[in-house]
Design a protein that fits this description.
four-stranded antiparallel beta sheet; 37% helix
């Protein structure tokens, strides 16, 4: 279908009214094109009076009595000279093989488009309407005509035309529509529906706008489906549904009835109706009031409405600029639609406009026109398989250009990643454009850096720009970009040149170290990291195994972070030996102590040759850990340790060493004299568990009441408290003596209770075990051919069952022939197992005798 200057049929009014501008922001539902080609030439010389639509072609009638068959592009395929006056109506059957035509001079022609055979008749009055049976060739070739009467024609069995009057007497028939077995027509009184299958009129829908002339404001009829009729007349719409009547209802009524499911009034006069899914397309004839209060004819409107039971909701509304609309009346317009696809034809005397639903390309056009680029790009991406006129990348480029014009450079750069994809040429063009406008920083973070890569010169250009203007941004790019994207040596040289001007720049030094790392010059990177005390130095050493490079830098590493350095050295003893570390740290004893302390915690034996050295280090830098070290070390020279502790007057450590060396009495003496702590003295005596120590402790404490109190409270379970109590002088005042004596008695009672409880448990267990042993020994013992004599090793049972035998079976389950056992021992009648006789009255002391 040719498209002609869409501006001429722009559905939006030219008015600049604010409300209309707001409405224009809503996307139209339909798009419009003029039907051109042959139609243009026809309407220049003639005027359209009616048209009907088939899925395959169009049939156009004119005021000069001609009928043209057109393809969907508007090209003329056939022409029929029917009359010299106006063609009133054209009707086609479903197959598109037969056509019915009526004209103002009373001519009616019904014929096959390929045979030209059919009905040709001239009536003495104008025939306003004609309608073919949808299945014309299968229905005895039925059709109806309407003028003053509604006549039904059909061929009889003699191949003659038979005429039946369906209705008359209510004025001129102005419209008729035939769908399946139902015929709907309108006259001056209203709309009737006739059932051709039952030959009954079903209903009559009365006309609402009785004040309007039917010839000036004709009725519009349209079948939505085989049971739904849409009626538009004047300014009212009714939707009628034909339903089957229940058999139990009154028999004299028709088998079908009509229910009006929706009825509403409109703002303008109705010139045509068509269904669109569950909505309606309505063509309005519009009149407007001029300044002198005269009505002028405005552009017709094509609205889409959602019918409701008593009103309707407007979905969209378009004003159409059809040619010569100022001269047209309501009766000059009509609306036809295609059953196959949603195409709507607005017919006026000098113009035919085709309306169709907007597709995704149209939707994108509208979005781009409204500068809604984000939505347009999203719509194109979602429907990229269905769009024909648009390209996703071109829409994306338009969006990027729009963002750049707005100054939203970050958003524009971000969209580049999505829009440009793997097109290197477009990428490079955008980079240069962003450089031109001074926005390389915006696009740098979105440049491709994976499988797709630009030329190294592009990345180097961006890095040089950042190095000049934004050192922090430069450092961030070096961290984020893989080193393979650019010439590393060129960037190293540029950074080095910059550092000559600013040698203490921390950011540039860090970045230079990273560049050296990318270039695998790890020693240079390590030097910079150590100089800067950078936290990544340890990660660099581990990752690239730089332990040979740090043997002479251990002190620097320890000064930076002692904990991390020591952990790293201990984790890699195979690469840096303990001796090497000790050698490096010998002039920094505080660091050496930290290293050896952690080494000792990991393994008490690895650094054993340095334990003597560690005594001094602990004494100097970490006394709190000296005593645990002395307790846990088995390689520490005790004399050396004792000497150091005595020099420094470390009493607790000295006490421990004295006790370790066996001089417990001297150790106890130090606790009592130098520490004066009875609890520690008692604890020491408990640990040694030596009666002489307890005696010394009692002797020392006997004239010191606080010590006596402590002893009374604590020695009850180790020493007989009577020994202490007897030695207390008469008249000595001892604090809390009563409480201490009570505690001694309670401890004694507790001991008695524990002993009695233990005795009961022991007796009960012994009795239980004795019973268990008795039950076990009372059980029978199986003797069969597999058992042997433990003395002669012959089978215990004779092979001859008739032979007399005697067997001795002990409870230890050893078996003997009686003759193989020696004579009884000291106790008459008691025999012992030879094997178990080493155990006096052991489990083999009992005997079972088996004889036959």
């Amino acid at each position: 279908m040719a498209e002609e200057s869409l501006k001429e049929i722009n559905p939006v009014d030219d008015s600049t009214d604010d409300s209309e501008e707001e409405e224009s922001e809503e996307e139209p539902k339909l798009k419009y094109e003029r039907l051109t080609n042959g139609v243009t030439e026809i309407l220049q010389k003639d005027a359209a009076s009616c048209m009907t639509v088939h899925d395959k072609f169009l049939a156009l009638g004119t005021h000069f009595g001609k009928v043209f068959l057109l393809d969907v592009q508007g090209n003329v395929t056939q022409k029929f000279e029917i009359s010299s006056v106006k063609i009133n109506q054209i009707s086609l059957d479903e197959s598109g093989e037969h056509v019915g035509i009526c004209s103002e001079d009373g001519k009616v022609q019904v014929f096959g488009l390929y045979t030209r055979e059919g009905f040709h008749e001239n009536f003495d009055c104008p025939v306003k309407v004609v309608a073919l049976h949808p299945q014309f060739s299968r229905s005895n070739k039925q059709f109806v005509t309407g003028g003053n009467k509604l006549l039904l024609y059909e061929r009889n069995w003699l191949n003659r035309w038979k005429m039946v009057t369906l209705h008359e007497g209510e004025g001129t028939i102005t419209n008729v529509k035939w769908r399946a077995n139902l015929i709907a027509w309108s006259n001056s009184m209203g709309v009737k529906i006739y059932d051709i299958s039952t030959k009954q009129r079903i209903t009559s829908v009365l006309r609402d706008n009785t004040g309007l002339r039917p010839d000036m404001y004709p009725c519009s009829l349209c079948w939505k489906d085989n049971a739904t009729l849409i009626i538009g007349w004047g300014m009212s719409v009714k939707i009628c549904v034909v339903k089957e009547r229940h058999p139990t209802e009154v028999r004299d009524l028709p088998s079908r009835y009509v229910e009006i499911v929706s009825a509403f009034d409109t703002e303008f006069y109705i010139s045509g109706l068509a269904p669109l899914a569950d909505q309606l397309v309505v063509l309005y004839y519009v009149k407007e009031n001029a300044d002198q209060e005269e009505e002028i004819r405005a552009r017709p409107r094509l609205d889409i409405v959602q019918p409701l039971p008593e009103t309707c909701e407007e979905i969209s509304s378009d004003a159409l600029t059809v040619r010569h609309f100022q001269q047209n009346e309501c009766r000059d317009y009509c609306l036809e639609h295609s059953e196959g696809e949603p195409l709507f034809y607005v017919i006026s005397p000098k113009d035919i406009v085709v309306a169709k639903e907007r597709d995704q390309d149209d939707h994108i056009d509208w979005l781009l026109d409204k500068k809604k680029y984000e939505e347009a790009l999203m719509a194109a991406e979602i429907s990229f398989k269905n769009i024909k006129r648009h390209d996703v990348q071109k829409i994306g480029m338009a969006y990027i250009n729009h963002l750049v014009e707005k100054g939203d450079f970050d958003a524009a750069a971000r969209k580049c990643q999505k829009v440009l994809g793997k097109n290197m040429e477009l990428w490079e063009n955008e980079v240069y454009r962003f450089k031109t406008i001074g926005q390389l920083k915006a696009i740098s973070q979105y440049l491709p850096r994976g499988d797709l890569r630009l030329r190294p010169a592009i990345y180097e250009m961006i890095l040089h720009e950042f190095l000049k203007s934004d050192i922090e941004g430069f450092a961030m790019l070096i961290r984020e970009w893989p080193g393979e994207l650019y010439n590393n040596m060129a960037i190293v040289q540029a950074v080095s040149d910059h550092l000559k001007k600013d040698p203490s720049n921390h950011i540039l030094l860090t970045t230079l170290a990273e560049l050296y790392t990318y270039d695998q010059r790890y020693d240079r990177a390590l030097e910079i990291y150590l100089r800067l005390r950078h936290k990544d130095v340890y990660q660099l050493i581990h990752k690239h195994n730089l332990f040979s490079s740090i043997e002479d830098k251990i002190v620097l590493l320890m000064d930076f972070d002692k904990e991390k350095a020591v952990d790293m050295l201990l984790d890699n003893e195979d690469k840096i030996s303990i001796d090497r570390v000790v050698e490096e740290l010998k002039f920094r004893p505080e660091l050496l102590h930290v290293y050896l302390h952690k080494l000792f915690k990991r393994d008490h034996h690895k650094g054993q040759k340095y334990h003597e050295m560690q005594i001094s280090l602990y004494a100097e830098y970490d006394r709190s850990n000296l005593l645990p070290f002395l307790r846990e070390s088995t390689h520490c020279p005790l004399e050396k340790a004792l000497e150091i502790c005595q020099q420094r007057n470390f009493v607790e450590e000295t006490v421990f060493l004295l006790s370790r060396m066996g001089n417990c009495r001297r150790a106890l003496q130090m606790v009592m004299e130098e520490l004066g702590d009875v609890d520690k003295a008692i604890e020491f005596a408990k640990d040694q568990d030596d009666a002489e120590l307890w005696e010394d402790l009692i002797s020392y404490s006997i004239d010191k009441p606080p010590f006596i109190t402590g002893l009374l409270n604590n020695i009850g379970t180790h020493v007989d408290p009577i020994l202490l109590i007897r030695r207390i002088k008469e008249g000595m005042e001892i604090p809390n003596l009563r409480d201490s004596l009570v505690k001694i008695l309670q401890d004694y009672n507790l001991q008695i209770l524990l002993r009695e409880g233990c005795k009961k448990i022991l007796v009960a267990d012994s009795l239980s075990l004795l019973k268990k042993m008795h039950r076990t020994q009372m059980r029978g013992i199986q003797v069969d051919e597999e058992n042997i004599c433990e003395s002669c090793h012959a089978p215990i049972l004779p092979s001859d069952a008739a032979k007399v035998f005697s067997v001795m079976v002990f409870h230890c389950r050893h078996m003997f022939h009686k003759e193989c056992l020696p004579s009884p021992g000291m106790v008459p009648g008691v025999q012992f197992c030879n094997i178990c006789s080493a155990k006096r009255r052991g489990p083999g002391s009992g005997i079972l005798e088996m004889k036959k």
